[in-house]
Each structure stands twice: as structure tokens, then as C-alpha cells.
Design goal:
about 325 residues; alpha/beta; two-stranded antiparallel sheet; 10 helices; about 15% strand; binds zinc ion
């Protein structure tokens, strides 16, 4: 049985002016994912506690968010706040934590959290890139600190680099962080040679793909980098920063993934991460977001085998990035 977080509170974070990261992204998503999963268990939502937020963020930053979201305003040039934002963002973290606990304990076979605002750009002491608190990063830290699991992996295929999650797990040898992202776009971080801080070298795998990467490129990254690294690390819990802005129709990303490509990624990842916790990150074309997420969830939950291979080969440019990453991390399989 899979668990689903889908709650109207996540519609309450709204900008006072038109913004890509808006509640319309979630409209109809819960029904579509419910249909894709069959009969998921719905998880109740609650805000993260102060202690949980402190597992990933500084007390000063949490207080800044609390204070600043009393009215409409901006955390940075991209990241808006409204009077409900602190409450909504706390619930997004609470949902990721509860979904992680549910899967780690065996109470659920996997989970999908339809949460917003997204989180993977939020660093320990600053929000940015539409992100206030780092839902996945904090959930990973809580899962380790509470002793639910000994090793956790985060797989981030949002088209943007997960700089916040990287910062939050930089010196954590019990966490593996894999980010597949488009090189040269926001937030301009995540080169392949960044592999983790002191004591955690080799636990961060950055795969910066060229603009225009498509299904065959992503599937090659999964097969040649992500699957072997997850097999080597042996995580007891896999959190997925599930962003769908690498979809071809997305207005912010320059990648070209199709729902079939996302389904093929899930089919390959399922072999090494059969019980994932998917937390929504980006994805700014709502129809593409819905199509890609549901195609992926259907395969991950075992309701559809999904394509095991795809037509076409990875581009020369993507293949060379993959070769560099495999060299850096000593992947020989
Ligand atoms: Zn993104």
C-alpha cells in the first residue's frame, strides 16, 4: 500500500502577483495520482515541529521566515511569502517527515507527497528559488537523527541543481545525494567535481547535463550512474526530489523529457529503490507535471511495467558528462 499526501493547505501559499510557483500546479493532481496508485492511504498533515526544522535549518532563519511571512513579501527576488507561507511550508516539511517515517517503518510501500512550496533550493540559513524550508533535506536529517534508518539516499531529478539539499547533507556520510540537473541555469551550482565535504567525500554525485537533454540521456544517467551508486551505498530509505521541470513543455527548464522517459527512469530506479518517498519539487507546466508524475508513479508502484529501454542513444555531450562522473566516483559496473 502506498501513502499519499494531498491536502488543501498546500494551496494556501500564494503570491500577490502572477508567479510560476502557484497553487494551480496542484489542481487535479491528487485525483490523477490517486487513480495512478489505485487505493493509496491518505496521510494526515501537520506542521513540522521547531525541533524537526532545526535538524536542517538554523534557529535564526526559522525565526526570519516566521517574522517575514506575517505579510506579503519576498525572501529573495524569486521567493515570495504570504501570511500563510510559514504555516504551509512547515506542513510541507511535516508531510515529508511523516511519509519518510511511514515508509521507513514498513507501514507503507512507498509515498507521494503533493506538497508546495518546493524545498530543494532552501539552504540551512536561507530560502531561495521558490523554496522556503527544505522538505527533503530536513526529512533526511530527521530520519537519520531519529535512528529510523542508518543510511538515506536523496535522488533529485528536478532540472535545477538541489543546492539546498547539497548544503544540508554536505558533511553527512550517512546520506547519499544524487542530483541530475541542467548545467548553466539557476542556481548555477552543482559541477561534477563537488563530491561531499570533509568526512563525506564521494557521497554527493552531481550530474550536470547540457541543455536539451532528453529521455535517452536521462535513462543513461540512471543506468550508468544512479543505479550503481545506490547499489554501492545501500540506502535503507530513498527520498526523491521529484521535480518535473525537465519535461519538454516546461517554461523554466531546457530539457526535453517525455512522460515515457520519466516512466523508464522509474522502471530502472525501482530495481534499487522499490519503496521511494517522492516529494514534489518543481514542474511549471501543469499538464506536463501531471502527465509525467502519474506515468512515473504508476510504474514505481508496480501498476505498469514501464518501458525498460528507449529508442535512441544518449547524445555525445551527455555521454561525456556521464563518463566524467563515472570516473570521478570510480564506477566500473
Ligand atoms: Zn526546478
Amino acid at each position: 500500500m502506498w501513502a499519499l499526501v494531498d491536502d488543501p493547505i498546500f494551496l494556501k501559499h500564494r503570491c500577490h502577483e502572477p508567479h510560476r510557483e502557484n497553487p494551480m500546479r496542484l489542481i487535479g493532481l491528487g485525483a490523477a495520482v490517486t487513480e495512478a496508485l489505485g487505493e493509496p492511504t491518505r496521510l494526515p498533515v501537520r506542521p513540522a515541529t521547531e525541533a524537526e526544522l532545526r535538524a536542517g535549518h538554523t534557529a535564526e532563519y526559522i525565526e526570519l521566515v516566521r517574522r517575514s511571512s506575517r505579510e506579503h513579501g519576498w525572501l529573495d527576488a524569486d521567493t515570495y511569502l504570504c501570511p500563510d507561507s510559514c504555516e504551509v511550508a512547515s506542513h510541507a516539511v511535516g508531510a515529508a517527515i511523516d511519509a519518510a517515517r511511514c515508509v521507513a517503518s514498513g507501514a507503507a510501500d512507498g509515498a507521494v507527497c503533493l506538497i508546495r512550496p518546493p524545498g530543494h533550493h532552501a539552504e540551512p540559513s536561507r530560502g531561495m528559488g521558490f523554496c522556503i524550508f527544505n522538505n527533503v533535506g530536513v526529512a533526511a536529517r530527521v530520519a537519520l537523527e531519529a535512528g529510523w534508518v542508518r543510511r538515506v539516499a536523496v535522488v533529485d531529478f528536478d532540472v535545477h541543481h538541489g543546492n539546498g539539499t547539497q548544503a544540508m547533507l554536505w558533511e553527512e556520510p550517512r546520506a547519499l545525494f544524487v542530483s541530475i540537473h541542467q548545467w548553466g541555469i539557476y542556481p548555477l551550482t552543482g559541477p561534477a567535481h563537488e563530491v561531499g565535504g570533509p568526512g563525506a567525500e564521494g557521497t554527493h554525485i552531481n550530474v550536470p547535463l547540457p541543455r536539451g537533454a532528453g529521455d535517452a540521456d536521462y535513462l543513461a544517467v540512471i543506468a550508468r550512474v544512479v543505479v550503481p551508486m545506490l547499489s554501492r551505498f545501500g540506502p535503507e530509505l530513498v527520498l526523491v526530489s521529484a521535480g518535473y521541470d525537465a519535461a519538454a513543455a516546461d517554461p523554466l527548464g531546457g530539457a526535453r523529457l517525455t512522460p515515457r522517459g520519466f516512466a523508464a527512469m522509474a522502471a530502472a530506479l525501482r530495481e534499487v529503490a522499490p519503496r521511494p518517498v517522492l516529494c514534489l519539487e518543481g514542474g511549471y507546466d501543469p499538464p506536463a507535471l501531471k502527465a509525467c508524475l502519474t506515468a512515473q508513479v504508476r510504474v514505481w508502484a508496480g501498476r505498469d511495467a514501464g518501458p525498460r529501454t528507449l529508442e535512441g542513444e544518449p547524445s555525445h555531450a551527455a555521454a561525456s558528462v556521464i563518463a566524467v562522473v563515472r570516473e570521478i566516483h570510480g564506477i566500473e559496473t
